[in-house]
Amino acid sequence: MTHNQSKCNYILSSHLTQDPVFGFWSWTFALSKLVEFGDTAFIVLRKQPLIFLHWYHHVTVLLYTWFSYAEATGNGKWFGLVNSFVHAWMYSYYALKAMRFNIPKWVAMFVTTLQLSQMVVGCILTASAYYYVHSAQVECHVTPLNIKLAMLMYLSYFILFARFFQQAYLSNKHIKKIGKKD
């Protein structure tokens, strides 16, 4: 086994078809993307504005996750791990907000920064998959179509989350709003 082949096996191996426990948790993760529409329902039911980033992210991540699960994509395990880590922080923050805890603004900024970091990691993992599949010419558990979809998804999310971060935390409108609270 070559050095690149062993790296590819570590980074992009698909345990989905080899390990029933991993397969179960992968299936659970794919199903969780349906459950995440619950927060969308709360937004709509509370008559709050539903921003493009929110529904676009939920719809596309659901489609991509199910597509990747069906393909037993190797890098999906890393996408799921990073996503679960970020969502643990994010949904903890949302739960505290829903319970009317007074949470400092920097926590919201931290959560959005984690989300942006997730997109960077996703792009790096996807670029690694591209390298191993195309340049190193080794057999990996990821298709060229999956690589294209993942890169498109993560780049579009990065742009949308960066725009959200700028508008929510760095814009003049937001700075004036903070000044009025002090």
Automatic annotation (TrEMBL):
InterPro entries: ELO_CS, ELO_fam. PROSITE patterns: ELO. Its EC number is 2.3.1.199. Belongs to the ELO family. One of its GO terms (molecular function) is fatty acid elongase activity. The chain crosses the membrane at residues 106-133, 145-165. This is Elongation of very long chain fatty acids protein. Keywords: Fatty acid biosynthesis, Fatty acid metabolism, Lipid biosynthesis, Lipid metabolism, Membrane, Transferase, Transmembrane, Transmembrane helix. It comes from the Eukaryota. It comes from Bombus bifarius. It is an enzyme of class 2 (transferase). The keyword Lipid biosynthesis applies. It is a multi-pass membrane protein. The gene is LOC117208431. Its main location: membrane. It is found in: Membrane. The keyword Lipid biosynthesis applies. It catalyses: a very-long-chain acyl-CoA + malonyl-CoA + H(+) = a very-long-chain 3-oxoacyl-CoA + CO2 + CoA. It holds the Pfam family ELO. GO terms for cellular component: endoplasmic reticulum membrane. Signal peptide: none annotated. The lineage of its organism: Eukaryota, Metazoa, Ecdysozoa, Arthropoda, Hexapoda. One of its GO terms (biological process) is fatty acid elongation, polyunsaturated fatty acid.
